[in-house]
Amino acid sequence: MRVRAQMEEETASKISRLWGSLAGMRVSIGLRYSAARITGQLIYASPTPPYILVIRREPENKITVVNWAQVAILDVLDEAHVRI
Q1: What stretch of H or E contains 40?
Q2: What is the pTM of this model?
Q3: What is the pLDDT of residue 75?
Q4: How far is Cα 83 from Cα 60, in angstroms, rounded to an integer?
Q5: Digit-coded pLDDT (tens) for 39-53
Q6: Is residue 55 very low, low, confident or very high in pLDDT (cuts 50, 70, 90)?
Q7: Would you say residue 63 has pLDDT above 70?
Q8: Residue 40 pLDDT
Q9: N or C terminus of the chain with fewer C-beta within 10 Å?
Q10: What are phi and psi of 50, to 5 degrees?
Q11: What is the mean pLDDT of residues 72-84?
Q12: Which of 10, 74, 11, 77 is nearest to 45 (CA)?
């Protein structure tokens, strides 16, 4: 059980670093069960429950909050270098 807890902690840490690296990047998100796509700047992505993404949409400049369960595809439109 101790090994599992350590693995979960390491995974959460890597996810947090990943989202930290992508913050401020332009992204495009495809939603499940919909042809809709949301394009904008990734402001925040939660590494812990509730798993949400906060995006500033282009060109309307409106804030959109999306639950991870709704996300089918996440494309990073800017060049990103991530070390995890």
Answers
A1: strand 37-45
A2: 0.72
A3: 85
A4: 32
A5: 999 998 887 777 788
A6: very high
A7: yes
A8: 93
A9: N
A10: -75, 130
A11: 78
A12: 74
What pLDDT is attached to residue 69?
A: 82
Q: How far apart are CA 40 and CA 8, in angstroms?
A: 30
Looking at this protein, which amino acid is placed at residue 48?
Answer: T
Q: Is residue 33 part of a domain?
A: yes
Instruction: Quote the tokens at residue 50.
Output: 């509730």
Q: Are 39 and 28 in contact (CB under 8 A)?
A: yes
Is residue 47 included in any domain, yes or no? yes
Q: Which domain holds residue 70?
A: 2-76
In a domain, 81, yes or no: no
Q: Which residues of 39-60 are buried (b: 16+ CB within 10 A; e: fewer)?
A: ebbbeebbeeeeeebbbeeeee
Segment holding 13, helix H or strand E: helix 2-22
Could you tell me how many residues make up the chain?
Answer: 84
Q: State how far the Cα of 44 lies from the Cα of 50, in Å rounded to an integer.
A: 12
